[in-house]
Write a structure and sequence with these properties.
The protein is built from 12 helices and no strands. The chain is an all-alpha fold. Helix 6 packs antiparallel against helix 9. Its main location: membrane.
């Protein structure tokens, strides 16, 4: 009787790892990637905060000489500075003109942008919706200089008869009173151009928000006998209200900081006038800085940076206010 010898066992070779150990090793790797991604995200957020703080400190440091200078020093250093006026009185008309132009643009652009966004998301056929979406995105890529040229050479002459009509028949309203500019280089024309510039931003964001409306909400409204408009009014608009506010605030930020289009169209002035059809009555902060900075030196540069600090504070306040509105209306938006 023959016996078969078993193959020799190599005592130096390690035993095979159990499957549980392999799963544990994969889980450790995934947890490691998760920690790395978390720290990368935290670093990105901290970088944004650091950049914002750096910009604020730079503006405050460079603006401090102008904020603490006397009236005589500022009047001597700044060519456009009126006598016997504090710096805050000097920057007041610039803040007023900036806010006025931005509010006009926002009031004109937001309803139109919402209508375009609703048409693209819920009314237009798919191919037409895609084409309109591309055109809206293309409008956002046009440089502001092109908008300025178009506004000065094309839009201003077209709007002149409309401004004359508003002044003739609605002149009893303070906004349309006064003498209409012959060249339409007024804050009203600037507001229309800014409205066209911020239109693609508000439209694009609103369109994406409306497309995120839960289909069950829309189908439930239609199943209860609602028309297309009633479905939009009861399901789509409440769900996207906070998103539309965010889109409008993004557009408002663009309008507040716009420079070249305003500089090329507006005839500047330093008053608190409510007559938006008159020229040489208003000026914005961004256009004022761009106009005077090339020839400024010394304390005049600090004064311009101080006006930039005012624009920074306005923009920050607008964004904080927008976040407050969104947080206040979030529970009613349907997103939860």
């Amino acid at each position: 009787m023959t016996t078969t010898d078993s193959p020799p066992v190599d005592e130096a070779s390690p035993p095979p790892r159990p499957r549980a150990t392999r799963r544990r090793s994969t889980g450790d790797t995934e947890r490691g990637f998760s920690r790395v991604f978390r720290w990368i995200a935290i670093g990105a957020g901290a970088t944004i905060l650091a950049m914002l703080a750096a910009v604020a400190l730079f503006l405050l440091f460079r603006a401090w000489p102008a904020l603490t200078a006397g009236q005589a020093e500022l009047a001597e250093a700044v060519p456009r500075y009126p006598d016997d006026t504090s710096f805050f009185q000097y920057v007041g008309p610039l803040v007023f003109g900036t806010l006025l132009a931005a509010v006009i643009a926002l009031a004109l652009a937001t309803p139109v942008a919402m209508g375009i966004a609703l048409f693209i998301s819920h009314y237009a056929p798919r191919r037409l919706a895609q084409l309109l979406g591309y055109l809206v995105d293309l409008l956002a890529a046009i440089p502001s200089v092109i908008y300025g040229l178009w506004g000065f050479l094309v839009l201003a002459p077209v709007l002149k008869p409309l401004w004359d009509w508003l002044n003739a028949y609605l002149g009893w309203i303070p906004l349309f009173a006064g003498e209409v500019s012959t060249t339409s280089k007024s804050i009203a024309t600037v507001g229309v151009v800014l409205a066209v510039m911020i239109l693609p931003i508000i439209t694009a964001v609103s369109r994406e928000v409306f497309l995120q409306t839960p289909k069950l909400h829309e189908e439930a409204a239609l199943a209860l006998g609602a028309t297309r408009w009633e479905m939009v009014r009861t399901a789509v608009l409440p769900f996207g209200r906070s998103g539309v506010v965010s889109a409008a605030m993004l557009g408002l930020g663009r309008a507040l900081g716009e420079t070249m289009a305003v500089l090329m169209i507006l005839s500047p002035g330093f008053t608190y006038s409510s007559h938006i059809l008159e020229a040489a009555k208003h000026q914005t902060i961004a256009a004022y800085i761009a106009l005077d900075f090339p020839e400024a030196s010394g304390l005049a540069v600090n004064a311009l940076i101080a006006t930039g600090l005012a624009l920074f504070v306005i923009t920050l306040a607008v964004n904080v206010f927008a976040r407050w509105i969104i947080a206040r209306r979030k529970e009613f938006s349907g997103a939860n």
